[in-house]
Amino acid sequence: MAEAYQLQPNGDSASKPLLELYVKASGIDARRIGADLFCQEFWMELYALYEIGVARVEVKTVNVNSEAFKKNFLGAQPPIMIEEEKSVTYTDNREIEGRIFHLAKEFNVPLFEKDPSVEKRIENLYRNFKLFLRAKVEFDKGKKVPSSVEDISPQIKVHYNRVCEQLSSINELLAERNSRYLLGNSMTEYDCELMPRLHHIRIIGLSLLNFDIPHDFTHLWNYILTAYRTAAFIESCPADQDIIHHYKEQLSLFTNQRETLQSPTKTHTIPDKVLSAIRVKGLAPDVNML
Amino acid sequence: MAEAYQLQPNGDSASKPLLELYVKASGIDARRIGADLFCQEFWMELYALYEIGVARVEVKTVNVNSEAFKKNFLGAQPPIMIEEEKSVTYTDNREIEGRIFHLAKEFNVPLFEKDPSVEKRIENLYRNFKLFLRAKVEFDKGKKVPSSVEDISPQIKVHYNRVCEQLSSINELLAERNSRYLLGNSMTEYDCELMPRLHHIRIIGLSLLNFDIPHDFTHLWNYILTAYRTAAFIESCPADQDIIHHYKEQLSLFTNQRETLQSPTKTHTIPDKVLSAIRVKGLAPDVNML
Description:
Chains A, B: Its main location: membrane. Chains A, B: Residues 17-97 form the CLIC N-terminal domain. Chains A, B: It is a single-pass membrane protein. Two copies of one chain form a homodimer. Chain A is an alpha+beta fold. The model of chain A is unreliable at 1-11 (pLDDT under 50). Chain A is 53% helix and 7% strand. In chain A, helix 3 (37-51) packs across helix 9. Chain A is built from 14 helices and four strands.
């Protein structure tokens, strides 16, 4: 029927499921994306499905403290995914992942390929970073600038070493694999997990800890560069200010106007020295063209 | 070595993993359990492992608005599970379930047996109830007592009917199966999901909606009675006042002192008429001995 066809000029796209993802808004401005890691992880996975035409995706930021949000979702917290056509609201990470998993499976998208050795290498990184962060922030209390790594107590050094060792082991893994993403040339759930966490470590390390990912981890930096060139990551990434604000709030640190009044910016570049090392090693061939 | 033996008189129990579960505290009193459904679900699963000696379990209530909590968990929300011996903190429902799943598998506990037909029957019940709840509370705004089902608008009646139809279909399933729990004589994850939700529907139905689970759903009521006789459920169940307070908060309803000042009580009995019907049908043989 011509009329029906006209109403749905793109019959194909109309049959794709529409998935709405509600993500936590920034504490600075409710129209901006907040720094919730699970929200970014699912957004990246959905983006992967959207990119290859498997699903339509809409993302909405929500202020979890607003009355309207509370009433609508009765205590559920973002990430929340809604599939209107099925009248289904997924409020649990297990359910959201379950739905994305089934869609990926149905369309043969290798988003959830398993690799226990990758899983093992990345699983405790963020936890260890949080332990380091908490301990060092406590240690630096009252100081005008965060202390350098040489000056921290042996106890905090233990946390610091653990983070560096694990970053090093991921660097080695990436060197061995020599692939764009953790499992190969396409992004999997492991990348959706690791990329946002590495970015938080970098942004928070620089702003609150006087810490940077060691510059000699060339393969790891190359991987971070890949994140900065992956649409799924860039689109779903909060601004630096929103990431810093999130952690300051949790750590009850004084929030100065630097973050709240600044125009939001996103650090998606890597240090020049590291970039040269990547070029020298012939990684990321497109870097040469810069 | 005798000394080592003396230090660990119960060698077996010392080798069991200790799992600490942090659950959301009640908004009335931070020492009391709050009404978070995921927290109760995991608590019940952990209780099942604890009961048969597979794990040691400790549960702690946390006030998510306290500075101490925020600092310690940096934005993560309960349920949170900690396994100190492994220095692992599980902050994601997928991770918590993954750990419980592996423990259950290791010790052959049939907690995660799959049954797609059960899954299908129970999956939308709570969502449909929330739609009914929100619509009816909005409809009843300004009224002194909630309206009766006869007086609600056709639109809300649709939500109401949907809830009743689904309760009826679960009632039928239970009648067909004729077993203590959904899958048989031992509790599975499906029961840990359904039992707390049915209890919330009952408590909130009575207190805010002028609604009760239809009394002729004898098998369903018998199942609720089973919950009230299941240690894993009773131990992890919040008081009525804490459940009501949770929903009132989310719905921005006036909180009167009835809930906040009352001594906490738990409704773990069922209507007499229903109890008689259960007796007549010869369900739950132990009921006769009351």
